[in-house]
Specification:
The complex is a heterodimer of chains A (about 260) and B (about 260). Chain A has one domain. Helices cover about 85% and strands about 0% of the residues of chain A. Chain A has nine helices and no strands. In chain A, α2 packs parallel to α6 and α4 runs antiparallel to α9. Chain A is globular and about 65 Å long. Chain A starts with a helix and ends with a helix. By secondary structure, chain B is of the alpha/beta class. Chain B has two domains: about 140 residues, 3-Layer(aba) Sandwich (Rossmann fold); about 70 residues. Chain B is about 35% helix and about 25% strand. Chain B has a six-stranded mixed beta sheet with strand order 6-7-8-3-9-10, sandwiched between helices. A four-stranded antiparallel beta sheet of chain B has the order 2-1-4-5, covered by helices on one side. In chain B, α4 packs across α5 and α5 packs parallel to α6. Classes of the chains: A mainly alpha (about 260), B alpha/beta (about 260). Chains A and B meet through α5 of A and β6 of B.
Amino acid sequence: MTKLLLPLIALGAFALRAFGVIGQLAIFAGTALGRAVRPPWYPARLGEQMALIGWFSLPVVGLTALFTGAALAQQIYVGGSRFNASSTVPAVTVIAIVRELGPVLAGLMVAGRVSSAMAAELATMRVTEQLDAMVTLRTDPWRYLIAPRMLASTLMLPLLVLVANIIGVMGGYLIATTRLGFNGAGYLETTRRFLETDDVVSSLVKAAVFGFIIALAGCFHGYHSSGGAAGVGRATTHAVVTAFILILLTNLVITVLVFGA
Amino acid sequence: MSAALVLSGVAKAFGSKRVLDGVNLEVARGESLVIIGGSGTGKSVLLKCILGLIRADAGSIRLDGQELVGLSGRALDEARSHFGMLFQGGALFDSLPVWRNVTFALTSGKAVRGRELRDLAIATLARVGLPADVADLRPSELSGGMQKRVALARAIAAEPDIIFFDEPTTGLDPIMADVINDLIRAQVKAMGATAVTITHDMASARKIADRVAMLHGGNIVWQGPVSALDASGNAYVDQFVHGRAEGPIQMVVRN
């Protein structure tokens, strides 16, 4: 009998752990915000993080958006042609990219790059006592390390997603005009007509939320790591998994809230 | 001499493991106290409790009469400004050049007043016997002994009242260990600072200490002047000082 319950027990334990982590993340975020609003501030650290997160994520985010936008347009054309609706390619592509795929894919790619890097860096600083040393040197790691990362990530993700949206639509445009027989000017005109302000606003709001989540997951798991080199590895893995799950979850919540009504 | 630092009944447990079990200890102003004890007896935890890096479960830690346990925010920052700490592994910031490491406390990490601070860093490095050209290197480009010296320079740069040394000679060859011991001794005396060192290196303890205290089982089991170390009449101290496997201290060895 107990053997039959084992999967349920494991599921329950996972759920309890997940709720525990969400609570700890909320406390961590609250602490970071509370510290960040009071000086000293570190604008140089903020600039450094904005470059690391924003500028250096551009290639990977751009490539992802380009290929996904192109594949999406191709599939909508194939699927749509079964209902004689292949002309919906520009409209559906732009809505799918701006509302969902742009923010989600950019968020996931940046999470893979940035959450892991933040977690590894902070965890190594924890293991080598650099975080403790910083405290004894009259410097608050929350203000010096964590606040600039969280602010930079929250600010840069909307910019990255804006670029991802444009490149994603251009990916669809490229496939549509070169292989699917669409007229270039007509394609862009349809795109413009179907895109609404709400789509762009929700896209950028999602991006800011994802940016916050990316830095939160990375800093949280790095700051609270323990157990040497293995601990650094664990922190990195947990940071990426946490960021991925939270991004997908909050994306669903925002989508339902904005477009469900 | 008045006591600069007074610990009474300091306790700390991690889960069911009681690491510190009511530690009572006084450190006089200007003296050099060395705390000896085996690995895992809570020496580092004791230091971290004093520095406020770990919160003590119970007891009182007073710095010049001011209670440190329970402090937070600005009051804790202010109290910490009296402390300097040399970490076991150096704990240098590997993303910053040596001179920014040395002057880190002076600007709370802000990258300002470059030329002035760089000169100050070079002067401080000279105090620990390092040449000026070290200032622009990264910590990863230095040997273990040089990293320890840079870490020492960083700990003394802000002229703290009390300096803590966590295993200052661990991982160094005997000659470099002696160089570090001399530097610690000389710099602490020159600054008139109070020093608290934890170590299990007896040669280092004899060289640095005015007074020695032994931590075992979460308590101070013996303390006295360094001259009394060999005639302490305490079985724990005798076993530790002579490094015997047999005695009242039992190392847990699994077969």
